[in-house]
# Entry
Amino acid sequence: MHRIVITGGAGFIGSHVTERIARDYPDARIVIVDKMTYAADIQNLAGVLDWRQRHLKVGDVCDFEFCLSVTKDADCVIHLAAESHVDNSFGNSMQFTRSNTLGTHTLLEACRLNNVPRIVHVSTDEVYGEIAEGYHTESSILNPTNPYSASKAAADMVAMSYIRSFSLPLLIVRSNNVFGIRQFPEKIIPRFILCGLRGEKMPLHGSGEHRRRFLAVEDFSEAISMLVKSGAPHEIYNIGAEEEYATREIARMICRELDLPFEGTVVFTPDRPFNDCRYAVNSDKLEAMGWKPRVYLSQALKGIVDWYREHQDRYVSVPTALSG
# Structure
C-alpha cells in the first residue's frame, strides 16, 4: 500500500494503531487525521511523525471538503475518529451524534467518490448492548442503551447501507474495552491511577459490579493491521478479550499496585443514568485468521502504572477527583 489514512490518529488507540501500521507498512505514506480535541495529544505521535512519510492533517471528519482532500488517492482508510466517553454522552449527546454518525457518513461518502479500495470502520462492542451471560457474535442484533453506543450503532448502519447500496469495500470491527499507556484519564484505568498518584479518592460508579472485558491496545492494533491486509470487505469482525473484571476489581488491582488500601481510597458514587451490566463478544472469526490476545491486564498493569507515574506532567491540568 502506498497511502494509508488513519482518522483519530492522535488519540490513544489511534496513535497505537498508527505505530503498528507504520511498522508493518514502512514504505507507505501515512496521513494521520485528527481534530485535536481534548483527548488527542501531539505527544502521542512522538517518534511516528516524519515529514516525508507520516503527516498530521488537522481537521474535522464532518467537513466534507476536508474528507475529500485527505482520502484522495488513498489505498486504505482506517476510521477511528470518535467521541468515546460514555459519561460525556449523557450530557452532550448531540455532539456524539454529530461526530460519530455524521462524521462517519461524511467520510464514507468521500471514500465512495474517491474510490478508496479498502476501508476499516472501527466500532465498539457496546452497539450490541449488555449481555448477562455468554457472548455476542457478529450477527447479533444491535441494541445500544446509551447515547454513545447509539451514535456508534447509527454509524454502523450507515456503513452497512453503503455496503448494500454502493458495494463500498469496507469492513467493520467491534472490540471490547481497550487499555494501555497514553489513554486519556477519563476512562477508569488511567483515571484511577492518577487519582491514586495524586492522593485523591477513586470514584466508582454504583456498586462496582458492572463487568467489562479488557483488551490490550497492542492486541487491538495487531488485529487492525491484520484486517488491513487480509480482512474481507463487507464483513464484520469482533475483537474480543479473555480477561473479564468487575469495575471494583479494577479499582482493587490499581490500589494494590499503588500500595493503597481499597477501603478509604475508593468512594462509591451515583451510577450512570443507565449502565450496562456486562459486555462480551465472540472473536472466533478473527482468531481463525491467526489472531489472539497476547497481552493481559493482570500482567501489564504494573508497567501502565509506572508509565503514568513518569508522565504525570502530561495530565497536570486534567481533573480526576470527584469534582471533575
User: Anything to note?
Assistant: Residues 178 and 289 are 21 Å apart (CA to CA). The mean pLDDT is 94. The longest helix spans residues 93-113. DSSP finds eleven helices and twelve strands in the chain.
